[in-house]
Amino acid sequence: MATATARSRSVVFAPTIRDLLARDEKVFRIDPGKVGVSDSRLMAEIVAARPVLSTERSVYKPAAGAEIPHDSATRTIRALGQDAMAGIRNPPPPVRGMAGSWPYAGTSYLRRWLFSADPLPVSLLSKRGVTRSDALSRLVDRAVTRWPGSPDQDGRQDGGTALAGLIRGADDTLERKQAVAMYRRATATLCDGVAALAGNALWLMGPQRLPEHRADLTAVLWETLRLLPPAWMLYRNGGTAYTALHPEIRPEDDVALFPLLMHRHPDYWSDPLEFRPERWEDVADPEKEPAFMPFGFDGARCWAKHLVVPLAERLLTVALDNRLVVHSPQQEAQVPLRSLLSVRFEARVLGA
Ligand code: HEM
Known about the structure:
Helix content is 41%, strand content 12%. By secondary structure, it is α+β, with helices and mostly antiparallel strands. The protein has a single domain, classed as CATH 1.10.630.10. It has a four-stranded mixed sheet with strand order 3-4-7-6. It has a three-stranded mixed sheet with strand order 1-2-9. A three-stranded antiparallel sheet has the order 5-10-8. A hairpin with a 2-residue loop joins strand 3 (27-31) and strand 4. Helix 6 packs across helix 8 (173-205), helix 8 crosses helix 10 (217-227) and helix 10 crosses helix 12. Residues 1-6 have low confidence and may be disordered. The structure holds protoporphyrin IX containing FE. The site of protoporphyrin IX containing FE (HEM) has 24 residues, from helix 3 and helix 8.
């Protein structure tokens, strides 16, 4: 289980992930205060046992010192969906923007494609040079809160995104500050996640069977979500709600759930380390497959899952149509320890 073989290409996981992959048990102690789980039934039970706490959320964790109201969360996801679907109807930016270090090149490219319609200072919210620095982010947040632009009657501005419309249309300062945080988190989660998924797929596809894989990119992406799921670990703080589910879990324990380990376990999958998109060919609803949870289980299922695979497929199509290839390394790439699991490589456009 230590390394993934994908026919011609392989990955080297960060030591911590390698150690986790080497565990034989499906419920194991990681340290004195943390239990790891990769058992499919127990994972489903844990996810269902209690709702995710607001502090455990990523996009919808509290912002500006207050919880995100449910209606504002649903407005955000609707706006994100509208913007993503409208964005990919626009012609893609020049593909040379995808050359360079992945997954970052993919993230920047997607941001440009989907969110470049917003005027300053809003467009700075999702700019990578800004999002990498907390100090710059705070400065831009303040600028946008003060100068959000003026809304037309739909809360939008000509050419601007619906997400930016939520900032301009906010009723008071708290709502505006939260809309700014939502804009940043939603665009980042979408672009980072989709770039990680598309990059992992580019790596796993390899050059040998490319024509065959190109014929069914949806299957390629589901198989990528199995072997290299960007959301590879889910975390729950405190074990009180889970002690009845397994004797190893004590009230004071945190619990880490590992889709990555479950997706590679021979008890659940045949040839688990083989990249075989064809295993998804006749599967009507991949998310109903047992022992597969790239977007979570019932109880905390991802709100954006309907956007992620189509966007990744569109990004991959543009990349392959324009002859974007992995330039280096050729055989073995690193997967560092990050909250999103992504293969690191350099890409080039052939003939450019
Ligand atoms: C490749 C991109 C993404 C992947 C792989 C992904 C994966 C996941 C997973 C595994 C969960 C379950 C988490 C848990 O049980 O702890 C989840 C939940 C969730 N995701 Fe996503 N996600 C992605 C993008 C997004 C985006 C762009 C948004 C919204 C802007 C989003 C919003 C949510 C929400 C609201 C939840 C429910 C948990 C909560 O209430 O906070 N996700 N996602």
